[in-house]
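Practice problem: predict the structure.
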Amino acid sequence: MRVVGGIAKGRKLAPPAIAGARPTSELMRGVIFNILGPELIEGAKVADLYAGIGSLGIEGLSRGAASADFVEKNPRQCAVMRSNLKSAGFEDSGRVYCVEVARGLGVLQGPYRVVLMDPPYRLQTLDPDLEALDRAHLVEVEGMLVVGHSKRLKLKEKYGSLSLVRSRRHGDSVVDFFLAEGF
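Answer:
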């Protein structure tokens, strides 16, 4: 697994430390960041929830984000993520919160221009996390929430101020883009 674009393009990322983890593929990361474009990423404050090895947030940093906060509950994955941040040259730009997402939403210092989520496909619903994210106002107005999920999981078109504006499917994976409107 490698960084797809930006200043760290081609840098290797260490694989997951736990069996069954499914990092966001290089193809899907490329799709996500091509859709977001440099106008949303450059200079942005980014959050990566269910961060795993940190590939989404590191991709954002590589493409010009000013900082990235990572939330991941597994301590072994957090260690891999810290190693990946260091090897990609972003240890000073990324903060790792080794807590469950529900708790992490209470400690993050938003708002963020871009929030990235690619949770485990085994989750039956993301509604509680998405509703809590909206209530916490962690996505800045005109910012974007990007949610990767299985095609079998259907998300609502609206979560408070977050409105679905785009969706992309590739195989079993779907990526939904939610725009944060005024509160």
